[in-house]
């Protein structure tokens, strides 16, 4: 097995479905900030439509993967951000089909498939941002757009903190998380 290295920051979504584009908008803002606040060496920024095969390719061989995606729970508070860490091999609970994601398969299903194929991410941190509008059209609603600056700072902090820890401890799947 090849040792894991580097960080993938993946924004999932569809920029033509209003708030579902928050993952892509986050990546765009991170790219803009790169000149002033570079992320750790080995950090790759990517946009994805959520296709499991493409996600596996993006996080393959990465020690740390940060995923940003919109969610649309029944009682949404637009802009509210949820953060959770998923340990290697740990599976999140599958959401009811179509309830939380506008993608055919959600992130949880992609993780299950990747785990079965031995192509899951190393350490995974997921940011889910509650959206208000997933209708056709471009542009985020004001509440979701207002959440982006803080979200980007939190992602930068995670990339720096966990990226440094990963380099220092040579984290690999199955090792204890410090």
Descriptive overview:
By secondary structure, the protein is an alpha/beta fold. The protein contains four helices and five strands. It has helices at residues 22-33, 52-59, 107-116, 142-169, and strands at 7-12, 43-48, 64-71, 81-86, 123-130. α1 (22-33) links the parallel β1 (7-12) and β2 (43-48). α1 packs across α4. The longest helix is centred in the C-terminal third of the chain and has 28 residues, at 142-169. The two termini are 22 Å apart.
Comma- or semicolon-separated keywords:
178 residues; alpha/beta; five-stranded mixed sheet; 33% helix; globular
Task: Summarize the entry for a quick read.
This protein has 178 residues and is α/β, with parallel strands linked by helices. The chain has helices at residues 22-33, 52-59, 107-116, 142-169; strands at 7-12, 43-48, 64-71, 81-86, 123-130.
By DSSP (H or I, 4+ residues per run), the number of helices equals: 4
The biggest beta sheet reads: 5 strands, mixed
Distance from N terminus to C terminus (CA atoms, Å) equals 22 Å
Please write the string of helix (H) and strand (E) elements.
EHEHEEHEH
Oligomer: single chain
Shape, per Cα inertia axes:
globular
Strand order, largest beta sheet: 2-1-3-5-4
């Amino acid at each position: 097995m090849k040792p894991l290295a580097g960080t993938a920051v993946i924004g999932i979504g569809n920029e033509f479905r209003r708030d579902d584009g928050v993952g892509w908008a986050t990546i765009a803002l991170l790219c803009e900030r790169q000149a002033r606040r570079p992320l750790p060496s080995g950090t790759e920024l990517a946009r994805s439509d959520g296709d499991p095969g493409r996600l596996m390719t993006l996080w393959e061989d990465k020690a740390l993967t940060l995923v940003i995606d919109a969610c649309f729970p029944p009682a949404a508070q637009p802009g509210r951000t949820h953060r959770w860490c998923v340990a290697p091999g740990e599976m999140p609970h599958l959401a009811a089909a179509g309830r939380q994601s506008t993608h055919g398969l959600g992130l949880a299903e992609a993780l299950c498939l990747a785990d079965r194929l031995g192509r899951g991410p190393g350490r995974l941190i997921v940011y889910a941002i509650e959206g208000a509008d997933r209708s056709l059209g471009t542009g985020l609603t004001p509440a979701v757009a207002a959440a982006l600056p803080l979200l980007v700072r939190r992602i930068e902090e995670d990339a720096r903190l966990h990226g440094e820890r990963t380099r220092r401890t040579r984290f690999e799947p199955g090792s204890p998380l410090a």
